[in-house]
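Structure (tokenized):
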């Protein structure tokens, strides 16, 4: 480990350690690899935005460490009308914004209405459900009325997009809200932000309304500094040398060594839902053949990719969704084919995909060749190169087009490719499936162009059902249908680990929407 640390320090060219060693005992320095372009929860889906927003603001609900159980947040309790269309939230009466103003039902109504307003241009306003009207019945009661039932609502309202924000601050700062300032009810308050550098926040004095999943309802440190260090080796060296206190951005290759380092503590979240997958555009030539798609699922060595690319910090995906997620269907896992390249060859032979002189198969004059789009980052590059080699061995030619993030999203909204590589977070089976597979979500995020009336019907049933068993059955039908059709190649399930320094106590990995350090509560730092 000493040699590894020295190597990291040499690579990093780190400055003297005086800054870290002189850091106040009550300041938590969080290291991360990327910044967000803004910290307005209604306008960003970046993980970097979420991890900060959860400290600056609160939501009506929260999710327990099991990532399944919804618990109170700003809402002490809630009830649902018999028709499932109206949720009545009873709010805490002891909550204040950072500027001291008391939070009321009017703030909840304003924040949700702002989130779903088309003028805000939130890319995830659908997560608020089919809203008909929000009403402040009295200062501590909100009626949240929908046009139809939405069983996912309590889960969705725990995501940072649904953060309650201060209307006065939003109107004063306009488009600079979350850029030049932020006024929320969270455990910490905005102090300053240097883009691609440090974001500094201070303790929200008087805060004691944390979700019940925490031991302490109030923050235990007076200041939090979110520090961006893009290079993973430099980031790790900073953590090990004392220039930072905690991070979830651990280089995969270093995880096993860090577990053996007595100067660090690692916390793992076993119920973490962030998956990598290959999606097929099922109406495009070549990949429109379900037999070929299934053969490709059988040909990709997912365990090999997890080991070679993630170095044990990722688990090979053995089903469309993570088996630990709410409403997962075990039968769909049984239907998922395992790694069987010889079986894939036999399947292709039996269905007319004959190998050509160059080794690439063809059927009815059509070569088994297509293009995959993805992001040009080290993880994506290594995954796709490994897949390319695996598919070549069974006679399928995979062409790769990886793009910088600045243009990749635009490219992925086109029809110019046959498959794509993506990773994504989710909170339940319904959340994942209702994001990617409704026909109305074509061409994005339903980049598969999956268009099936039965799928739409089952997803609608799941969203609107007032009966838990009926919802589970509808979602099970979708999972089995998509698994049988081989619409995806589930690849790897990313693991979530938090590494914290010896002076840091109480850091526990949570994982909501990819965020490891949820709210920063229960954490203390010493000298």
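Design, position by position:
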């Amino acid at each position: 480990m000493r040699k590894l640390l020295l190597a990291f320090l040499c690579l990093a060219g780190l400055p003297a350690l005086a800054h870290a060693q002189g850091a106040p005992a009550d300041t938590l320095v969080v290291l991360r690899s990327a910044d967000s372009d803004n910290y307005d929860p209604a306008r960003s889906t970046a993980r970097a935005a979420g991890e900060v927003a959860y400290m600056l603001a609160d939501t009506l609900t929260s999710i327990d460490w099991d990532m399944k159980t919804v618990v109170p947040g700003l809402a002490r309790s809630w009830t649902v009308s018999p028709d499932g269309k109206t949720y009545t939230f009873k709010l805490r009466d002891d909550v204040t914004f950072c500027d001291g103003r008391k939070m009321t039902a009017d703030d909840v109504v304003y924040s949700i209405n702002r989130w779903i307003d088309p003028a805000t241009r939130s890319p995830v306003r659908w997560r608020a459900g089919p809203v008909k009207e929000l009403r402040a019945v009295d200062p501590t009661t909100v009626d949240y009325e929908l046009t139809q039932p939405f069983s996912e609502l309590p889960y969705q309202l725990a995501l940072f997009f649904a953060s309650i924000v201060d209307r006065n601050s939003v109107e004063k700062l306009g488009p600079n809200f979350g850029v030049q300032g932020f006024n929320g009810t969270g455990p910490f308050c905005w102090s300053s932000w240097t883009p691609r550098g440090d974001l500094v926040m201070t303790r929200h004095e008087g805060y004691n309304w944390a979700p019940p999943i925490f031991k302490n309802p109030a923050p235990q440190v007076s200041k939090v500094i979110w520090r961006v260090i893009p290079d993973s080796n430099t980031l790790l060296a900073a953590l090990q040398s004392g220039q930072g206190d905690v991070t979830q951005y651990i280089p995969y290759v270093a995880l096993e060594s860090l577990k053996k380092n007595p100067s660090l503590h690692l916390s793992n979240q076993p119920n973490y839902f962030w998956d990598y997958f290959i999606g097929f555009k099922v109406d495009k030539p070549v990949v429109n053949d379900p037999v070929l798609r299934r053969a490709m699922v059988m040909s990709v060595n997912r365990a090999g990719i997890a080991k070679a690319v993630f170095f044990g910090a990722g688990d090979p995906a053995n089903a469309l969704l993570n088996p630990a997620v709410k409403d997962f269907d075990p039968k769909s896992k049984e239907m998922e084919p395992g790694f069987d390249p010889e079986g894939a060859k036999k399947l292709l032979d039996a269905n007319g995909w004959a190998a050509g002189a160059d080794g690439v198969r063809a059927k009815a004059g059509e070569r088994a060749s297509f293009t995959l789009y993805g992001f040009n980052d080290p993880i994506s590059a290594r995954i796709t190169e490994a897949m390319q080699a695996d598919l070549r061995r069974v006679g399928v030619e995979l062409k790769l087009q990886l793009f910088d993030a600045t243009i990749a999203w635009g490219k992925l909204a086109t029809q110019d490719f046959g498959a794509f590589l993506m990773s994504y977070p989710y909170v339940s089976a319904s959340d994942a499936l209702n994001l990617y597979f409704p026909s109305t979500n074509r061409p994005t995020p339903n980049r598969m162009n999956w268009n099936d009336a039965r799928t739409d019907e089952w997803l609608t049933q799941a969203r609107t059902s007032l009966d838990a068993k009926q919802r589970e059955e509808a979602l099970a039908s979708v999972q089995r249908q998509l698994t049988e059709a081989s619409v995806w190649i589930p690849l790897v399930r990313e693991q979530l680990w938090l590494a914290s320094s010896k002076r840091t106590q109480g850091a526990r990995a949570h994982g909501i929407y990819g965020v490891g350090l949820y709210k920063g509560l229960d954490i203390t730092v010493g000298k």
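Reviewer-requested clarification: The chain is about 30% helix and 25% strand. Residues 275-494 form a domain with the Dipeptide-binding Protein; domain 3 fold (CATH 3.10.105.10).
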